[in-house]
Amino acid sequence: MGLLAFVSSLPPAEAILFSLFVVVVVSILALHLFKPKLHLPPGPVAVPIFGNWLQVGDDLNHENLSEMAKKYGEVFLLRMGQRNLVVVSSPELAKEVLHTQGVEFGSRTRNVVFDIFTGKGQDMVFTVYGDHWRKMRRIMTVPFFTNKVVQQSRPFWDEEINAVIKDIKADPDAANTGYVVRRRLQTLMYNNMFRMMFNRRFDKEDDPLFLELKRLNGERSRLAQSFEYNYGDFIPLLRPFLRNYLKKCQKVKDDRLNLLKSFVEERQRITDVKPPSNDEKCAIDHILDAHKNGEITYDNVLYIVENINVAAIETTLWTIEWGLAEIVNNPDIQEKMRDELNSVLGPGVPVTEPDLPNLPYLHCVVKEAMRLHMAIPLLVPHMNLKQAKLAGYDIPAESKILVNAWWLANNPEWWDKPEVFNPDRFAGAEKIEANGNDFRFLPFGVGRRSCPGIILAIPIVSLVLGRLVQAFELSPPPGQKKVDTTGHGGQFSLRIANHSVVVCKPVN
Ligand code: HEM
Questions:
Q1: Residues 6+ apart with CB under 8 A from 470
Q2: What is the rounded CA–CA span in Å between residue 118 and residue 407?
Q3: How far is the CA of 19 from the centre of ligand 1 (A)?
Q4: Vertex 469, ends 349 and 504: CA angle to 5°?
Q5: What's the gap in Å between 403 CA and the centre of ligand 1?
Q6: Could you list the residue ranges that cross the membrane (predicted)?
Q7: Which residues lie below 8 Å from residue 147, measured CB to CB, with a gap of 6+?
C-alpha cells in the first residue's frame, strides 16, 4: 500500500496527525542533510550524547591538554557532552584568539556553577564581551589599576611584609624545624587588598570575621574549580542530579555576598560621618560613586568586590608560594638574588617598590616562577558568541576556548630545558616580559581580557620574595633536600598541592 493510500485509509483526525508527524520527521532529516557541514578542528572521535567525555575524563588540566596537543595539533576540539571545547596551543593561534580576533573570542563561557557565583555575569571577570564588561572594566581601572594606586599602596605593602618578617622571627620553630610561610602570607595578601579596597586590615589571624571570609572564599574556589560538577554541565539531562551541589553553591554565594556587603556598609558608615577627600578615597569609595551616578547597580558593586576576592588574592598568593618553593629548592639562585639586593641597595636596606626596576635578576626570578608554574595556566576560558574561523576551521558559536598558556611557556620547541627553573633564560637580549610582548609567555593573558591586575601583582610578588630573601636564608626542613612542588589543578587554576614548610634562618 502506498503512503497516500495508507493515509486516506485512516480516520480524518488520525490522518492529520500522521501527516504532521511525517512532515516533522522529513523536515528534521532535511535540515540535517542540507545543513552546511562545518569544517571542525581535529580531535578524538565523539560518541553520541557523551561526546569525548568518556575518553578524556574530567581532569582537563594543562598537562593533559598539552599531551593531547602533541597528538591533535595546535588547535583541537573536544566535545564534552553538549559543550564544545577548543584548545589552542601555539603562539600564532594564541595571538589570533587574544589579539587579532580579540573581539570575536573576547567573551567568557560560564557554566551552571559560575552562573550562580556571578549572578549570571553581573560581575566583570566572567561577563560576555560587550557594553557591561566595558563599563565595569572602566569603573575598576581608576581605583585599582593605575600607577597612582601603586604609589598610594606601597607604604602599606611595606608595612605588611615588615609584619610578616617580624612574626616569622618571633616564632622559635621558624629557624629550626620550619614555618608554613604561606599561611602568614595569606594574611598579608588579604590585608594588601582589603587596605586598598576598604582602608581596613585584619589585625589578628583568628579574627572571626577574617576566618569566615577565608572559609567562604575557599569554598567558592573549591566549588567553582572542582571537576565534580562536569557531568551536569556537559549533559543537561543529568543536571537534576546536581541539585544538591548547586544548592551548596547558592548558599556559599549568598553568605559570601552578605559578608562582603558588610565590609561595604562598614566603610559607608565611616565615610558618611567624614567624607574622604579625593586623595583619601579607597577603591570602594570610587566604586560607590559610580553607583551613586547611576552607572552600575548595587549588586554590580558587590560583584566587583567578589571579583577582587577571587582574581587578586589567591592568584598572587599562589605565585608567591611557587616562587618561594623554587627559591628554597635552588640555593644558588637564592644567593644570587641576595647578592643583587645587597649590591644594588646596600646590605640590610629593605627593597621597596621604586627599587624594582634596578633589580633585573629579581624580576627574572619572578617571571621564571610564573613560566614554570602559572597560576592560571589555561587563562580564564574565552568564548566566541558567534560562529568563527580559526586556522581555517569553523568554531561553533559559544565554544569554550582554552588557550594553553602553560604549554606555550613550557614547550621544548620554544624553550631550552623548560622543566628546569632557570631565571637566567629571561636575562637574554630578547626581553620577554609578562605583559604579552611575546606570545610564548602569557601568564596574565594579553589583549582585551588580559589581567589588569598585573600592575599590582608583579610588584607585590617581587617585594615579598625580595624581602624574604633579604631577611632569611630559606631552606627545606631538616632531613629534606627539597620542598615538594607538585601542583594541584582545577578548571583553570594551578596551585601548589602541599604548602611548603620552610626553615627561615635570619640573615645577619
Ligand atoms: C600573579 C597574580 C595574577 C595572575 C597570574 C593573574 C592572571 C590572570 C589571567 C591569566 C587572567 C585571564 C586573562 C585572559 O583570560 O585572557 C586574569 C584576569 C583578570 N585578573 Fe588577574 N592575575 C593575577 C593577579 C590579579 C590581581 C592582583 C587583580 C586585581 C587587583 C587581578 C584582576 C583580574 C581581573 C579583574 C581579570 C579579568 C579581566 C577581564 O575579564 O576583562 N588579577 N588574571
A1: 338, 341, 348, 350, 351, 507
A2: 29
A3: 57
A4: 120
A5: 14
A6: 15-34
A7: 455
Q: Tally the domains of the chain.
A: 1
Choose the residue to mutate in 139, 451, 461 for probing ligand 1, maximizing ligand atoms within 8 Å of C-beta.
Answer: 451
Residue with the nearest Cα to atom 42 of ligand 1?
Answer: 453
Rounded Cα distance, 421 and 336, in Å: 14
Residue-wise pLDDT tens digits, 170-189: 999 999 999 999 999 999 99
Which are the contacts of 126, defined by CB distance < 8 A and separation ≥ 6?
108, 110, 114, 117, 118, 380
Residues in the chain: 508
What letter represents residue 35's amino acid? Answer: K
Residues at CB less than 6 angstroms from ligand 1: 98, 124-125, 137, 144, 307-308, 311-312, 315-316, 319, 375-376, 379-380, 443-445, 449-453, 456-457, 461
How close is the Cα of 382 to the center of ligand 1, in Å? 13
CA 371, CA 421: separation in Å to the nearest integer?
A: 9
Q: Torsion angle of alpha carbons 35, 41, 45, 48, nearest 10°?
A: -40
Domain residue limits at 501: 110-387+400-506
Domain for residue 205, yes or no? Answer: yes
Whether 86 maps to a domain, the answer reads: no
User: In sequence order, what are the beta bridge partners of 496?
Assistant: 487
Position in ligand 1 atom list of the atom nearest CA 370? 5
* Atom 15 (ligand 1) nearest CA: 380
pLDDT in tens, 7-59: 677 777 777 766 776 665 566 556 555 566 899 999 999 999 999 999 999 88
DSSP label at 88?
Answer: E
What stretch of H or E contains 108?
strand 107-108
Task: Determine how many CB atoms are found less than 10 A away from the CB of residue 420.
Answer: 11
- Residue nearest ligand 1's atom 2 by CA: 316
Give the CATH number of the domain where residue 375 resides: 1.10.630.10
